[in-house]
Amino acid sequence: MSAGHSGVLNRILIVDDDVDLLMLLERKLVKQGFEVETAASLPEAEEILQYFRPHLLLLDINVRGEDGRKLSFKLKQDTTHKGCRIIILSGYDYSASRAALFGADELITKPLHLAYLLHRIEHYLFNGSQGVYEPGPI
Rounded to an integer, what distance in angstroms lies between the CA atom of residue 71 and that of residue 67? Predict the structure, then answer.
């Protein structure tokens, strides 16, 4: 499920300050064949984004008191990451349409249903109307 049509592994960056959830998602996605990087803070995520070009970003809305939507907006404005899909994860009662204002493709509420999350990842990486996202060179 994880290799793109070109045979390139799809890359996912997970940003969440819940280290247990971060490790769980990383293990599950690596087992599914994805290349995964993780960050427990927004500054760490921005540092990783300098060398890691993810196809998809799983982004907590509240990361150590900082607003993850700012990173979502910044990423969508950056042509280096053009086409990167963003799924915002939130434990808050938050409007999906407001998440879209910050460039997010979808909002998924916590607690996460892992099978549903994997289904949505597959949708954005393999079944989206734009096809498989091929980022520029790292």
Answer: 8
